[in-house]
Amino acid sequence: MLDIIRDRKEVPLSRADIAKITQMSATSITRITDYLIHSGLVEQVDTVGKGTVGRNGIGLQVIRDSIVTAGISIDSDYIDVCLLDFWDEVMGQRKETLAKRPYTPEEILKIARKLFDGLCSDLGFVPEMVSAVGISCIGNIDYKTGTIFFAPQFQWNQVELGKLAKMYFTQQVYVENDMKSSIVGLSRRDQDLKHENITYLSIGMGVGAAVMYDGVIMRGSNNAAGEVGHIIVEAEGRACDCGQRGCVQTYLTKNSLIEICGEKGHPVEDVQEIYEAYRKGSPWAAAFVDKTVDHLAVLMRNLVYMYDTRYLLVGGAIISDFPEMFTLAKGKLKDLMHSNLYSNLRLKCVMEKYNSMIGAAFVAQENSVEQCGDGNG
After folding, report:
1. Where are the alpha helices (DSSP H) in 308-354?
2. SS3 labels along 3-62
3. pLDDT tens per residue across span 283-318
4. What does CATH list as the number for 191-349?
5. Residues 226/180, Cβ–Cβ less than 8 Å
6. pLDDT tens digits, residue range 274-284?
7. 312 near 349, Cβ under 8 Å?
8. pLDDT confidence of residue 251
9. Does domain 2-62 have CATH number 1.10.10.10?
10. CA distance 143 to 147
C-alpha cells in the first residue's frame, strides 16, 4: 500500500481510491493507513474538490523528508555522494576525483564523510537527520555484512567496509556492489522498469552487468552474478590479468581501448580522442570502432542467451560519451540471434549517469522502510 501511495505521490489518494486499486476491505485499508501515518511515513492532506457541494476529500501522501538517505558511489577514479528524499528526488550531490594511486579503505571513507558533511551544509541539512547511508563500491561484495572480498582496482582483499564505515557515520550503513546498485538506481526511477526482467550492461573503466527478475536482483551463490568481464569474446585474444586470453574486459574498457590503439600505431592519451577521430571520419578510427562494436555485439548477444530478460539496457561511461557504440552494436545484434529472441527484446541505451550513487541511496531507503515495518524505525 505504501508503494501505491508513493507511486502517486504528487496526487494524494483517498482511502476509497486505494480500496478500488487493491480490492481490500475498508477496515483493512484504515488499519494499514493508520499504521503508515503513525510510522511517520504518510500524512493526510486536503484534496482538491471535484466540483461537488461539500468539503474537499482527505487524501494520503508520503512525507517528503520522512526518510532521507545518502548514496555514496566509490569507483576507481572518483567518489560521488548524494542525498535522496522519500519522493525519490535527489536533493543534491558532490563529487571528488581520486588521484591515480592506491587508497586505503580508511582514506576513501574519510573523503566520503567530508563530501557528505559538505553536501549537508550546502543543503542546510543536519547530518543526523539522514536515516541511513548506502555505499556502492566496485568489487565482489557480501552485501549482508559489507565485506569486500576483493576489489582489484584498489588492491583490496577481505576489507570489512561495512564495519569500518561505522567509524565515520552514525547512521546504519548498507554496502552493495556497484553494478547491483546501478540497476536499482535505474529501475527505481522508471515506472516501466520497476518490476521488470532486466539485464543492465555497463562499459567504462570496467565491464559489468546486473540482472533483475520481477524487480528483484539476481545475486548468485556469491553475489557475483553478472561478473561478465571475463567472458571470452576472442579465442587466443589479448592477455587478461585473470590468466586467460580474449576476455571482454581486455577489449571494452577505457584503458584497453587506449592500449589497443597504441598497439595498432595510433597512440591516444584519452578515449575521447578515439570518439573525435571517428566523428571526423578518420579511416583508422572507423575500422577500430567497427571491431570494438563486434565485441560489444557478441557480449550483448551472450547476455540475452544467458539471462533471457525482456530488457537489455546498455550504459556506462563509454556509452554515455559515445552512444554511437550502442547504435552500431544494436545494428549487428539482429544477425547474431534467433529472430524470436530479437523481436521480443527491448533494447535501451542508458544515457543517465550517477546510477550507482542514486542506487546506493535507494538501497539505504528500502532498508529504512523495512526497519519501519519491523517497528524499529
Report:
1. 317-321, 324-333, 339-344
2. HHHHHCCCCCECHHHHHHHHCCCHHHHHHHHHHHHHCCCEEEEECCCCCCCCCCCEEEEE
3. 999 999 999 999 999 999 999 999 999 999 999 999
4. 3.30.420.40
5. yes
6. 999 999 999 99
7. no
8. 93
9. yes
10. 7
